[in-house]
Amino acid sequence: MKLQELVSQTAERIATYRDKVGDGPVGPTVDPDSLRAAFALGLSEQGTSSTQVIERLVAAAEPGLVATAGPRYFGFVVGGATPAAMCADLLTTGWDQPAFNAVTSPAAAVAEEVAGGWLKEILGLPGSASFGFVTGGQAANTVGLAAARNHVLARVGWDVESRGLPGAPAVRVLASAERHATIDRSLRLLGLGAGAVQEVPAGPDGAIDAAMLVRALDAAPAGPTIVCVQAGNVNTGACDDLALACQAAHEHGAWVHVDGAFGLWAAAGPSTRHLTAGIEQADSWATDGHKWLNVPYDSGYVFCAHPGAHAASMSFTAAYLVGHGSGPVRAPSDFVPESSRRARGFATWAALAELGRGGVAQLVERCCKLARRFAQGLGALDGVTIANQVVLNQVLVSFGDDERTDGVIAAIQRDGTCWMGGTTWRGRRLMRVSVSNCTTTEADVDMSIAAIERILATLA
Ligand SMILES: *Cc1c(COP(=O)(O)O)cnc(C)c1O
Question: How many CB atoms lie within 10 A of CB 204?
């Protein structure tokens, strides 16, 4: 088969899959052993025709796919993909550009340049901030904290990029007890160690206790300090008080990193923007494209108010040149930990061009509104309580004691109308609902609530 035909057929398959992704059961339906049997054909000596390979791949994989792209997947914080973003990502694969710099792909470099500017505008970040297109929130946190490490140590005369950490002044990290687990992994990767964290308690809603943060800063001896705050608690959606954290941290010469993997997008919605007040005063920010912006995996962004520290911590050409300094086009690889890398800018550019500023605002507002609809509908059912104040797109649900709640979650997952996961929050087992997909409608929420009501009746 000609390549043209194979690509067309593959595109057809994708279109059909996406068209039907909302129809079948949402969760996984096969056991790993049957998937293993389907994939483990035996590595042949001769290879197989491309057409056959794709046919076999589809046959083997489709039963093991989870409808995470569909409208009734509410597990973790999983976004869908806008049509233009998905197609731009298909083009990215077809074009196969190494987005290292403007020599390997001028188009990839400029698309990132433009999309990065749009992101800053929509999120209310300083126009002068540098940015990197990375694989996700984990990578964005790592890069933001690497820039922080560079900067706070440079301030005490230590060049961490050349000398490393042996013998360096200790770096203290103040972070909420409710920080995301990826922060600790980033600290481990950066050699600061998860043990560098001095934990600050969180309030009842899951946001950092700002008074305790101020007290911790006041009590701490002067020295390199990073304050790690959060926009969007993974359980409750609560956002830390960024304005207060930034003011207090800066009075103490500390760097403020904001982990806003999904919550940073609150800044794009008129009725949620207040949750991120003061956002522009931070030093670095991490967020995801693949969560709330609905760009296909993998897509994350890091922004930094100190481009010099950002480039010094990432670039491997010359630490003193920002973006290969002299070149007319920003070099994407100077701001990320990869050299050869996917041209991630195209899909983000497409999502933003398609949605526009108003479309992004609507996406955020609609997801929040649907989350409130969930809270209202589920909260009205017998024996069901909503365990958080729904400020964003996250809802926590209790069906009674831990055992009962886990039992109901398992029954919902078996039923397949929708998919929600479980969590432990403040010592209680709860169901966690995240509304993050641009294709989710009120009807999807109502259908999910009806299914849960039906399941509760059968379990009673
Ligand atoms: C999802 C999430 C992360 C990690 O992002 P990935 O894209 O999964 O790497 C970090 N912090 C928070 C608050 C998150 O919700």
Answer: 11
Q: Of the candidates 418, 447, 443, 455, which has an alpha carbon nearest to the alpha carbon of residue 433? A: 418
Quickly tell me which residue has 């994350």 as its tokens: 300
Terminal CA-CA length for the chain: 57
Residue nearest to atom 12 of ligand 1 (CA): 261
- Residues in contact with 354: Cβ distance below 8 Å, sequence separation at least 6, in sequence order: 82, 83, 84, 85
Counting from 1 in the atom list of ligand 1, the atom nearest the Cα of 290 is 7
Best mutation site among 288, 290, 302 for ligand 1 pocket (most ligand atoms within 8 Å of CB): 288
To test the pocket of ligand 1, the residue of 145, 182, 242 to mutate (highest count of ligand atoms within 8 Å of its CB) is 182
Structure tokens at 393: 């797109």
pTM over 0.85: yes
Helix ranges, 96-209 (H): 106-123, 137-154, 160-163, 181-189
What lines the ligand 1 site, CB under 6 Å? 77, 136-138, 180, 182, 230, 232, 234, 259, 261-262, 288, 300
| Helix or strand run (H / E) with residue 229 | strand 225-230
Segment 171-228, tens digit of pLDDT? 999 999 999 999 999 999 999 999 999 999 999 999 999 999 999 999 988 899 999 9
Atom of ligand 1 nearest to the CA of 182: 10
Q: How far apart are CA 6 and CA 12, in angstroms?
A: 10
